Amino acid sequence: MDYRYFLAVFDSGSLAAAGERLHIAPSAVSRQIALLEESIGLPLFERRPRGMEPTAAGSALAHHARRASLEEQALLSELRGGDYPGARVIRLVSTEGLSRYFLPHVLIQHYPLHPAFQYVLEVMSPLECAEKVKRGDADVGLTFSTEPTEGVEILYSSRSAIRAIMRAGHPLSTLKQLPLRSLVPFPLALTPKGTTQRQLFDLVCEMEGLAFNHVMTCNYSGAIHEFVRHTDTIAFGGAISQRVNDSNDLISVPLSNPRFSDRTIQVLTMPKRTLPPSLQLFIETLIGCLKAVN
């Protein structure tokens, strides 16, 4: 069954937008939706002045249609021996802290064994990662989260405690563990509000009644780390977000408040999707690297 028209309306929310996406008249899209509803025997959308709102049946069919499309692509890939564009593309989405060092390290492990593969990596927020995976626009998501992610299948989850990150030689760098209060004399570089790191930091500050000299906010860990390397500023992050090599110019020290451990790394896929063997192998490599780091 061809779900192109249905998914175009589902994703865009209107016949006009779906027609523009498909380069056909909205009336033609409307006829295709009517035929599909007639064949199924159920309304898939509620027609409203501001657009088309999916019914419960429409939402369920959309999930099925996306899974069916991905599984058909995987089957064609196997039947054709992978000899066509896109057959061996792995589409990844990740949060910034995991994409800078860790995910390239995973690809370095996977690529020599599977040189015919191509990787497409997009960096975005945890919510955007989950939405991409849920819709079938990405094969695998890798995110930080402070709670179970809804609407996706979590193939693997492990704790990733937030630590204090500072330059080697910093006055606090030799300590085994730090109470957050001990950071008060030093300037801080933070990620924006809404990130898992910032959520837990703000929560502990409120719990302990602490205020800090906050000198930098940035959504790119590379800029934060470079600033920290050359000042006494302290940043935060998981050990996995630091360079995965022999570099020792940055030090990460555990924080004593247990709330800083209320964060996990999650590997996400589309629920109920039958994963092709090639993707399963990549996920095994990914999870193996996570276990090794932890």
Please characterize this protein's 3D structure.
This protein has helices at residues 4-12, 15-22, 26-40, 56-79, 96-99, 102-110, 126-135, 196-208, 221-229, 277-293, and strands spanning 45-48, 51-54, 89-94, 118-123, 140-145, 153-159, 163-167, 188-190, 214-217, 235-237, 250-254, 264-269. The chain is an alpha/beta fold and 294 residues long. It folds into 3 domains: 4-62, Arc Repressor Mutant, subunit A (Orthogonal Bundle), CATH 1.10.10; 88-151 and 267-293, 3-Layer(aba) Sandwich (D-Maltodextrin-Binding Protein, domain 2); 163-261, D-Maltodextrin-Binding Protein, domain 2 (3-Layer(aba) Sandwich), CATH 3.40.190. A 5-stranded mixed sheet has the order 4-3-5-12-6, with helices on both faces. Helix 8 links the parallel strand 8 and strand 9. It is elongated and about 70 Å long. Residues 1-55 form the HTH lysR-type domain. This is LysR family transcriptional regulator. InterPro entries: HTH-type_LysR_regulators, LysR_HTH_N, LysR_subst-bd, WH-like_DNA-bd_sf, WH_DNA-bd_sf. One of its GO terms (molecular function) is DNA-binding transcription factor activity.
